[in-house]
């Protein structure tokens, strides 16, 4: 017999008990998974429509070298992104090195000395600290005379409208709104909540630029923050929109003015969007965007499966097993260092690449405790691929995300439970 169950048990290292437990959970997830598939179908059509409208042609898959003048593939791709995100313009480049770089370009391009940057949703993602100068850093916005103010969310997670109103002054030029909770414990913002927040800010001062850090949020819903008033959305191509195929890169999509400023900052005043060779990446950028809605759906199913699996085993999971989803990150509080290590070793053991190595906790720059990271990815550091990490400190939370296919995400979670089971931490 060639059953899937036998495959897992005989070849994939999964105990029958872990397999059976997983299968029972899935019975109850059918309806939610069907909803995710419907969103993916809608977003797939959105991407195909944008490619057709812009007459994407075989020649666009080729690259340029040197200055990259007249790179039609690049320019057309940027128009495709603009159409998918419903913006006037977009900058989509392999020269944008990561999400942090994209955010740095977007901010430093649109702010001038004397301006103030406001975060109305609490402290942003760790790597933003140095961009802003929250932690003193060479080249920060603070060094260029851009000040920063922050309004935290209320204890119940709501926006502090009164605080935001008071924080806005005549120097406030740009508001940064982080959609995903990242590695914080606040809830991720839905596009509907972002709409409310932007409307509130624009009502006070319509000329304030509203930027959304869209990392991990693309294609989770049917609409993006750029459709509810954001002037600029920013993200990484080794997360959702690269579909697992983009080998590097980032994007900034938004108003013509914001994107033009960003282009001049990325390349040089006077050059802007006109330069930038794409070498050989155009095909993977197009094809990755084409696959992204399906890949995101697989990652979402994995996150929901993980939440259900671990919650029913007695662990605290964020978001919980029934919450609606607005990004692809799942946190599991594993309570002990042994459990966190076993979890990450399971994710690693399930990888297509480097499955035979075992991750160990290590000191990392910027962290005050050892960190363990699991990734066996085709693209270095890609977090749309199955990956997990966590700092070795209470409550020993594993942050888990990605999975290029649902089946692989599922296998990764099963393998994490398997390792906890083998270590005697879990029983079924
Ligand atoms: C990943 C991420 C970033 C930074 O992206 P890198 O590619 O790691 O530099 C910024 N903000 C959020 C919310 C993220 O998830």
Automatic annotation (TrEMBL):
InterPro entries: Met_g_lyase_put, PyrdxlP-dep_Trfase, PyrdxlP-dep_Trfase_major
Pfam families for this protein: Met_gamma_lyase
This protein's name: Methionine gamma-lyase family protein
Taxonomy, superkingdom: Bacteria
Annotated organism of origin: Lachnospira intestinalis
Upper taxonomic lineage: Bacteria, Bacillati, Bacillota, Clostridia, Lachnospirales
């Amino acid at each position: 017999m060639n059953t899937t169950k036998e495959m897992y048990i005989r070849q994939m290292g999964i105990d029958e008990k872990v397999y059976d437990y997983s299968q029972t959970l899935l019975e109850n997830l059918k309806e939610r998974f069907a909803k995710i598939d419907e969103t993916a179908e809608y977003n797939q059509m959105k991407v195909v429509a944008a490619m057709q409208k812009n007459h994407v042609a075989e020649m666009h898959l080729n690259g340029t070298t040197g200055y990259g003048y007249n790179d039609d593939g690049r320019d057309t791709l940027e128009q495709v992104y603009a159409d998918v995100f419903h913006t006037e313009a977009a900058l989509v480049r392999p020269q944008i090195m990561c999400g942090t770089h994209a955010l740095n370009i977007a901010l430093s391009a649109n702010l001038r000395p004397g301006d103030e940057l406001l975060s109305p949703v609490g402290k942003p993602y760790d790597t933003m600290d140095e961009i802003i100068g929250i932690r003193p850093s060479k080249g920060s916005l603070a060094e260029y005379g851009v000040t920063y103010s922050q309004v935290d969310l209320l204890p119940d997670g709501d926006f502090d409208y009164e605080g935001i109103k008071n924080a806005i002054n005549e120097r406030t030029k740009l508001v940064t709104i982080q959609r995903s909770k990242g590695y914080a414990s606040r809830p991720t913002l839905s596009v509907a909540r972002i709409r409310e927040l932007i409307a509130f800010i624009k009502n006070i001062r319509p000329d304030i630029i509203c930027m959304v850090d869209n990392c991990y949020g693309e294609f989770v819903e049917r609409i993006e923050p750029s459709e509810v008033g954001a002037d600029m959305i920013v993200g990484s191509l080794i997360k959702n929109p690269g579909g697992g195929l983009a080998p590097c890169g980032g994007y900034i999509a938004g108003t013509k003015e914001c994107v033009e400023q960003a282009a001049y900052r990325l390349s040089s005043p006077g050059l802007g969007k006109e330069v930038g060779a794409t070498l050989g990446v155009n095909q993977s950028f197009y094809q990755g965007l084409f696959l992204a809605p399906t890949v995101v759906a697989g990652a979402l199913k994995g996150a929901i499966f993980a939440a259900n699996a671990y919650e029913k085993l007695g662990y605290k999971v964020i978001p919980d097993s029934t919450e609606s989803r607005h990004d692809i990150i799942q946190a599991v509080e594993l309570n002990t260092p042994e459990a966190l290590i076993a979890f990450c070793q399971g994710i690693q053991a399930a990888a297509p690449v480097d499955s035979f190595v075992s991750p160990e906790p290590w000191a990392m720059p910027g962290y005050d405790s050892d960190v363990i990271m699991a990734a066996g990815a085709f693209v270095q550091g890609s977090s749309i691929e199955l990956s997990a990490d966590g700092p070795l400190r209470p409550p020993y939370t594993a942050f888990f995300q990605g999975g290029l296919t649902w089946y692989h995400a599922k296998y990764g979670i099963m393998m994490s439970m398997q390792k906890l089971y083998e270590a005697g931490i879990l029983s079924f």
